Amino acid sequence: MSQEGKINVAVENIFPLIKKFLYSDHEIFLRELISNATDATLKLKHLALIGEASVEVGEQQIEVKINKEEGTLHIIDQGLGMTEEEVQKYINDIAFSGAEEFLEKYKDSAKDSGIIGHFGLGFYSAFMVASKVEILTKSYKDEPAVHWSCDGSPNYTIEPGTKENFGTEIILHISDDEKEFLEESKITELLTKYNKFMPVPIKFGMKTETLEKPEGAKEEDKAPTKEVDNIINNPSPAWTKQPTELEDQDYKNFYRELYPMQFEDPLFHIHLNVDYPFNLTGILYFPKMTQDLNVQKDRIQLYQNQVFVTDNVEGIVPEFLTMLRGVIDSPDIPLNVSRSYLQSDGAVKKISSYITRKVADKLKSLFNEDRKAFEEKWNDIKIVIEYGMLSEDKFFEKSDAFALYPTVDGSYYTWDELMEKIKPTQTDKDGKTVVLYTSNKEAQHSYLAGAKAKGYEVLLLDSPIISHLMQKLEQSKENVTFARVDADSVDNLVKKEEEQISKLSDEEKEALQKSITETIGDSSYSVQVEAMSSDSAPFMITQPEFMRRMKEMQATGGGGGMMGFGNMPDMYNLVVNGNHELVQEIFNAKAGKKKDRLIKQSVDLAKLSQGLLKGEALTQFVNRSYELIK
Ligand code: ADP
Ligand code: MG
């Protein structure tokens, strides 16, 4: 006794629409069908648990099978199955989501059962790859089996089936242009991508397992083997467990499971676990970071009830945390909306700030529990923390508890410790505390040596975004300014040494300044003659801190782009120590070739120590030097 009918949709032919618009990725059909099979399995488990289904559920599994001869792909579950009435209702009325109805009906008891579906269109994604779809199903209720079949036109047939055990088998007759879905390797790939952590064991084929050799076996005897089900997933991944159930090693093992190609252990992990006001679980890992901000994204995987959704979590986790790795699982993230909408969604905002807070708390406790270990990791994690301080105000506020400021000598200070340390000695004429730093110990060596000789504390700040962060610190901390060791503002530091008596009068200084300016003939250098102690360098090149930093900030994006600092030529100060013997000699030399040569040679030496002597100028300098020593 067979019936015929038409699927209840307003649009005469919905299939071309599904194929085109429902999902841009054809491959997700398998995820949808396995989600349905999982739902059916979990539903039955739940009904059995609350005593509404009187069946033996046992160890249920889902099986995926390829039949090459028939050109079919089978998804078989041992879930609750469907009666004929239910097939009519759930399959024929497209977009009537059975999952949602189930959750509505069993609201309170089913909340934690992990049921996946909610769009009510998942099943029809099968038509993206199949020319014909069959459902063989038998309900756990004592009712006849059903056989539903549809060839892709809106016409279906429904007739009594022969299935004996409860559960459902979906048969896809793969279309000619989608034959790749009959390849074992393709299906394995999809199952590992989308279903690796789904809660019901998924069997795909068999595999050979090696057994222990029997007692008394000889060396050359082969170990016996056994064919076993090839289960492709881990139904209870670490993030679904309580942190108290897990050891450090379990977290590391799970990291391996997520990133099989990653050989280095993560530095530490953060277990996320909330159920109010939204549901979210997950584990985030801090891997060793490099300095490159761009290569490290797309490594956090987003799941919903253990179904893989995407590895693009932009808009869901704060940008600075997209450099981390790990898993986030939340059924509360709306995914059928655009990414730009996501960012304005209230629930997503809450999720994002929860994650930020958890990360800050974890960093704080790591710092407090073992400061030394934390300091050792600083270089590998600072990029994330500095980026976070820069981009998230909440994180910035909390960062005082764990952000470190390393000195060139290998000490690590918190902000408060740093201030306490340098306030008494590093203050400028305006009463601001000056944080001295170098971005490159080698390149700025002579300046660094100068600063250290004066007893100053110098930080080593070398992240690509550090100039932005300094700007932010200067704005939000009171009375603080940063100066690179070769910056002109270092001169503004209140000198600890005695005021020097100038060996040159003001007129003489002016004359010297004029003749040096004329000799070097380069308008990007402004010459100033100062009275410094006679053992300070005779010539020194400094750069305005502000200008240099603006240029750096433009190079790394953002920060005063409108002001066009990027186009400005570099500006330098040539500081001449009027009290130095060499400078005295230059001053006293008669105008002419010798004087010019002395000035040129000295200025070139100053440039050389700042890494500014290049190309033809460098060649000339070298030639001139040979002339001088021969
Ligand atoms: P959703 O999963 O969002 O509810 P689907 O289109 O994926 O929507 O499925 C529609 C309905 O069909 C499901 O809610 C469920 O009631 C029923 N269904 C689909 N697949 C199965 C299955 N394998 N076993 C039992 N019922 C199923
Ligand atoms: Mg579904």
Brief overview, please?
With 630 residues, this protein is of the alpha+beta class. Helix content is 36%, strand content 19%.
Structure description:
It contains 19 helices and 22 strands. It has a nine-stranded mixed β-sheet, with helices on one face. A five-stranded mixed β-sheet has the order 10-11-14-12-13, with helices on both faces. By secondary structure, the protein is an alpha+beta fold. 36% of the residues lie in helices and 19% in strands. The protein is elongated. The model has no long low-confidence stretch (mean pLDDT 86). The longest helix is centred in the middle third of the chain and has 24 residues, at 346-369. It starts with a strand and ends with a helix. It has four domains: 3-205, Histidine kinase-like ATPase, C-terminal domain (Heat Shock Protein 90); 238-376, Ribosomal Protein S5, domain 2, CATH 3.30.230; 404-498, Rossmann fold (3-Layer(aba) Sandwich), CATH 3.40.50; 503-543 and 565-630, Four Helix Bundle (Hemerythrin (Met), subunit A) (Up-down Bundle). The structure holds adenosine-5'-diphosphate (ADP) and magnesium ion (MG). Adenosine-5'-diphosphate is lined by residues 32, 36-37, 40, 77, 79-82, 90-91, 97-99, 117-123, 168.
